[in-house]
Amino acid sequence: MASLVERIDLLELDLRRVQRELQVLRREARAATTETPEPAAAPAPAPVPRPVVPARPPAQEGPTRPQPSVDLGARLARLDLLGARGLAIAGGAVTALGITLLFVLATERGWIGPVERVGAGALVSALVFGAGLVLRRRYGQIAAALAAVGAGIAGGYATLAAATVLYELVPDAAALGIAAAIAGLAVAVSLAWGSQLVAALGLVGAACAPALEALDAGIGAVGVAFGVVVLGATAVVAVRRRWARLLVAVLGVVGAEAAWLAAADAPAGTPATLAVTGALIGVVLVSASAWQVTGNERALSVVAGPMVLAAFGSVLLSGQALFDTAADRAGWLAVGASAFALGWLALRRVQPDFALVLAAGSLGLVAVAVANVVSDDGLTLSWAAESAVLSLLALRFRDARLQLAALGYLALATAHLVTVTEPFGELFAGASVDASTAIPTFAVAAAATTAGLLAPHGYTVTGEVGMLAFLGSVRAALLAGRARVVETLVAGASTLGVVAFGILAVSLDVPGGHLALGAVAALVALAGTVVAPRRRARGLAVASLAGSFLVVAEATAYDFAELPDHWGAPSLLVAAAGLLAAGVLVRVGWETPARLGLASGAAATVAFVASFAALDALVPDLPATAARVWATFGTSAIAVAYLVPAAWALRRPRLRNLATTLWALGLVALLAAELVAADDPQVFAVAVAVTVAVAAFAGRRVGEPRLSIAAAVLVVLDGVGVLAWLTPPWHLLSPSEAPASGVGALVAVAAATAVVALTAPGRDRWILGVSAGLLLYAVSLVVLELVIRLSGASLETDFERGHTVVSAVWGVTGLTVLVVGLFRRSAALRYAGLALFGVTLAKIFLFDLAELSSLARAASFVAVGALLLAGGALVQRLGEREPDILER
Predict the structure, then answer these.
(1) 546 near 606, Cβ under 8 Å?
(2) What was the pLDDT predicted at 77?
(3) Distance of alpha carbon 485 from its chain centroid, rounded?
């Protein structure tokens, strides 16, 4: 529109130049006719044809592309800023400034009195204005005439401002009337001439007059009221002629003066300041509505929309600056909300899009007004409300500029909340926590949620060029990074929401509040790990898992360390449960990422350690038996918490690593439960052996060799412990009252070893041999103890007799194994029987011969020898009956 106006101005100047040239040609023609009369019969001269100015082709519709760079000199030449037009503009501006500086100079030097100064200013302004009218009447609408008229109007405003503000020669009411008259004159001239230049020089200069006078006397409500009147006059002219630049320029000047006035009167504004501010906001709303309605289009105007948003922000910020109590601030916001609501009611049918902006502004003001009643942190609330409103409008109109503004206000609100309000510190303030801090925290969380969940999936291309061309890149960046922006906003909103809840909970009860805070934070983080895989949001998954770790860290550093055990330990236990669940879910939800697998393993491990720390603090101060029952129940619960999801994950090959981590930690917890529950080491060893058998069987059933390996490792550790402490070798080699005291554990280890052997891939025979050897060792101890108990001699004699029986038992066992091996054609059993014979011979030569009495030695040798003879005879008979039996 501005470009079209400039073209019309250029066309008008060209027509005026052609008219002047025609007048010169007519005068020359008359002179020639006078000097040389034409013959009577001569025909009349043909009329001079009117020059035709070729019409410029209309602008092509479609997407606007960035224009190529043009040389600055070429642009200036095109606008005629280096010619008459530029000189006229410069002259008008300098003249207006000179009229204003006249009062400043006169004040400093004391040359003339106030009345003379004002009169001189008025006279100069009138002369300049009249000169402009004369130039326009005599030479047409040339640039100098336009500039002179504009300078005269600006000078009139400056003179009136000086007479009212500096010298108090004119009452305020009269000054407002005179200002209105000058504004009406400027409106009349600009409309009659159809020139934006007159309006710009006159109205913008008038708008600047209060600010220039304020350099000496300071800003005042009366001066800003002049600006509001000027803005109203400007709106009339601009709306009628669609002069957007003029309206925006005057609005910027008057808005800056109003902000200056509000800052000068803060923290409590005077009635005059409040009235001026309210009038300014009303003029802006009316002007925006008039611009939208007269535009003959239903789409939101690029001028009216920002003006409404500027009015919305002015209501919020002026309320914060001019009122020192929350109730007064809420009343101011309620009045502003009413004005927006009236606009919505009036325009909801004829301009639904524009009315939607007004309705959103009204709702935002109402929300902030209500919040101000219960909270003093109005600035954070205002910025959060502006962000929410802009987010809603950005979704409705798919405008990236509104979305960018919403994010900017959200950043301001968040920064103010974190640095000034400090809600995180309130969580650890103890009994002195300020519950009202939760309100701005909730507000910022709600604004972040709105900006995240309502982020548009696409934006309307508005085609900015020049200095605003960067908005195209911003639009593309918002579209490309929408997922990350949404994840970040939702994660931040969740964090602030949890903090706000924690502030309220801690304000009611410090220990219980921290427990509730930990539970809610763990649930929120857990929800993030559930939602993230469905939305394929890796960032959200990482943030949620990090939040679970943070909850455990907070519970460890503060709850567990500072609160009583009956509050701190449950808080840590809840945090650990949340971390475990988050670690499992984040691995279950994603199929392949190895890093998430490592993170889930770390989460399970940290939760395991934290659970045992909390459990240790939770065990009550009871007698030993009762305390042991409590500890057994707790450790068993931890074991179940790990083993149940491990059993589920074992059936899914892609979760093999997760299952391994879970069942490994679950086995450790189960062993801890068995250790706490068992009051006897032999009972613990038996329990471990049962655990080994179950683990080995489960590994074979689900086809998990890692579980079988773990069972083998456990049975080795269990066997070493039994052989080292319960049934050591000296029970067999030295006299004792009860050599078979720990034989039950040894039998259990032998049985568990057999299960490991039978469930291992290929059923390893060596492991079966180890199991048989342990069982034979257990039988030997039992036989030795039976002989000692049945014999009535001394311990030494009974011990020697027992070893004679043990040697016989070994020999019988070796013979039995040998025979079985022969009949089953098993070379392994034959060799095992022969090996056992060899061990028996070694025993009687190395131990019996050296340690036993003569009679015992003889008995051992006779018994073993007889068994060897029997074995030899049996082998020979079988060899004669079946010659190939020994070859297999």
Answers:
(1) no
(2) 42
(3) 8
List alpha helices for 200-351, DSSP H: 205-217, 221-241, 244-265, 271-293, 304-322, 326-347
Q: What is d(CA 138, CA 750) in angstroms, rounded to the nearest whole number?
A: 125
CA distance 696 to 687: 14
For the ranges 59-68, 586-595, 728-737, the maximum mean pLDDT occurs at 728-737
- Which of 111-125, 356-370, 770-784 is predicted with the least confidence, judged by mean pLDDT? 111-125
**Are the C-beta atoms of residues 587 and 597 closer than 8 Å to each other?**
yes
* DSSP conformation letters of 716-769: HHHHHHIIIIIS-THHHHS--S-TTTTHHHHHHHHHHHHHHHHHSTT--HHHHH
- Would you state the pLDDT for residue 66? 41
| Helix ranges, 459-593 (H) | 470-480, 482-508, 510-535, 538-554, 560-562, 565-589
pLDDT tier at 612 (50, 70, 90 boundaries)? very high
Lowest average pLDDT, out of 164-173, 480-489, 607-616, 809-818, goes to: 164-173
**Is the pTM of the predicted complex or chain greater than 0.70?**
no
For 721-747, write each residue's pLDDT tens digit.
999 999 999 888 888 888 988 899 999
Q: Is residue 390 classed exposed, middle or buried when 0-12, 13-18 and 19+ CB atoms within 10 A define those classes?
A: buried
- What is the distance between the alpha carbons of residues 199 and 551, in angstroms, rounded to a whole number? 63
Determine the Cα–Cα distance for residues 35 and 37; give it in Å rounded to an integer. 6
Evaluate whether 770 touches 718 at the Cβ level (below 8 Å).
no
Buried b (16+ CB within 10 A) or exposed e, 636-650: bebbebbbebbeebb
More confident residue, 870 or 490: 490
Phi, psi of 267 (to 5 degrees): -90, 0
CA 318 to chain centre: 30
| Structure token digits, residue 136 | 């326009």
Given a contact cutoff of 8 angstroms between Cβ atoms, the answer to whether 219 and 239 are in contact is: no
Q: Mind listing the pLDDT tens digit for each residue in 806-820?
A: 988 988 888 888 888
- Provide the residue type at 883 as one letter: P
Cβ atoms of residues 156 and 122 within 8 Å: yes
What is the SS3 assignment for 793? coil
Residue 797 CA, distance from chain mean position: 83
CB 756 within 8 A of CB 712: yes
Q: pLDDT for 664-708, tens place per residue?
A: 999 999 999 999 988 889 999 999 999 999 999 998 888 888 998
- Which one-letter DSSP state was computed for residue 51? P
CA 500 to mean position of chain CA atoms: 16
Q: Rounded to whole angstroms, how far apart are CA atoms 555 and 561?
A: 8
pLDDT for 62 equals 38
Judged against a pLDDT cut of 60, whether residue 58 lies above it is answered with no
Nearest C-alpha neighbor of 148 from the set 105, 214, 115, 193 = 193
Which residues, other chains included, contact 725 with Cβ-Cβ below 8 Å and sequence gap of 6+?
681, 742
Largest Cα–Cα separation, the chain: 182
pLDDT number for residue 51: 43
Residue 604 neighbours by CB under 8 Å, 6+ apart:
580, 583, 584, 642, 661, 662, 665
Residue 132: is its pLDDT beyond 80?
A: no
Q: Which amino acid is at 418?
A: V
Alpha carbon distance 271, 255 (integer Å): 18
